[in-house]
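Fig. S4 source data, part A: sequence.
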Amino acid sequence: MNLLIAALLGVVQGLTEFLPVSSTAHLLVGARLLGFQDPNSVFTEMIQLGSIFAIVWLYRARVVAVVTGLPSQPEARRFAALIVVGVLPALAAGALLSDFVETVLHKSVATIGTAFVLGGLVMLWLDRRTAGATTTRVDETTVRQAAGIGLCQMLALVPGVSRSGATIAGGLVMGLDRATAAEFSFFLAMPTLAASFAHSLLQVRHQITADRTAELVVGFVMAFLASLVVVRPFLAVVRRVGFTPFAWYRIVVGAALLVAAGAGWL
C-alpha cells in the first residue's frame, strides 16, 4: 500500500512541480489525507529529483550546449552566471531556515492555505500587467532581472507559495514575458531542487531503510514521468491564456484548506 501511495504522490509531484501551484503543499496535504508518514519531509523533498531529471532531459540540448561551452563561449558563461545569481539567495535562505521550515511551516495547513490564496491573488494581478514585458527570450535576461527573480524564489520556502510561482511572479515583475518567465523558472529549478535533494540526503543518509528506499525510487520514477508530460502543455497554456486558471485554482484550494484547518479536519 505504501508503494501505491508513493506512486500517487510521485505523480502529484511531477504534475505540480513546474506549475505555479506548489508541489510541496500538494505533497504535504496529500500525505496527510492518505496517512503517509514522511518524517522531516524527506520523501517530499527527495522525489523532486525525478522532476529535475525530467527538466534536464527536456532541455538537454541547451544544458549540454551551456556546459560544453563554458570554457570558450561567452554566451554560455553569461547564461551560467545568470543561473548562479538567480539561485544563490534561495540556497542561502534554505541553509539558514530549512529546519524551521520543515519542523514548523510544513506542519501548518493554515500557513499553506494562506499562502495559496495570497499567491493566487498576486498572480491574478501580475497576469494583467502585460504591457511591462520587455524580455521575450531567456538569453536576454539581465543580471539585475536574475537577481530579482532569485530574491523572489526565497519566498518559496513557505509551503504553498510555490517555487515556480514565486520565480514566475518575480520574472513578470522584472519585465520578462509569461513564457520567458516560466522557462527561466525551469532552469532555476535544476540547481535549486538538486540542492534540496542533496540537503535531505545528507541529513538522512544513515536512516534510509530498504522500505523507504523503495518508496523513494517509486516516487522518483513517477515524478519523472509526470513532469515529462506536463511541461510542454503548461507552456502552451501560458502562451495562450496566461496564469489566470492557476491563480483561481490556488484561491479555491487555499480557501478549502483554510476551512478544513479551521474545522480541525486537517
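Fig. S4 source data, part B ends here. Residues 121 and 247 are 7 Å apart (CA to CA).
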